[in-house]
Amino acid sequence: MADRVKLVDGSMTNLPFANQLFDYVVIDSALHNITPAIQRGRALQETARVLKAHGTLVIVDTRAMKEYRQVLSNVGFDDIQVINTGFDGWWGGPWITTKVMIAKRS
Questions:
Q1: Contacts from 71-77 at CB under 8 Å and sequence distance 24+?
Q2: How distant, in Å, are the alpha carbons of 18, 40, 42, 86 from that of 35?
C-alpha cells in the first residue's frame, strides 16, 4: 500500500496539513485522551482548519460529546448529529456506550 498511502506523524493539536485539504476527517476513540479540555478544543479547531468548507467530520467516542458539540458550534459547524451505537458499541459493559458524532458546516 506504500504506493497509495502515506503515513504522517503529527500532533492532533497542530496538524501538519494545509488548510481545507480534506473532504472527511474521522477521529476514532482518540480525542478523549487529550488533556486538558482546552487541548481537546484545540484539536477540534485544527480539524476544522484542515476540513474543506463543506466537508464532514466524524467523531467516534465514549464521552464528552456535549463538549465537542459546543466547540464545533463555535467554529462554524451547524449540522451536528449524535448517534448512540447501542449494544454494539459497549466498552466492558452497558455503562460506557460509544457514540458517533457527524458534523458538517452548511
A1: 71/40, 71/41, 71/44, 71/45, 72/44, 72/48, 72/103, 75/44, 75/45, 75/48, 76/48, 76/105, 77/48, 77/103, 77/104, 77/105
A2: 25, 7, 11, 26
What is the identity of the amino acid at 88? D
Q: Which amino acid is located at 78 in the chain?
A: D
Is the pTM of the predicted complex or chain greater than 0.85?
yes
pLDDT by 10-residue block (mean), the chain, 106 residues: 90 97 96 95 97 96 94 96 78 76 93
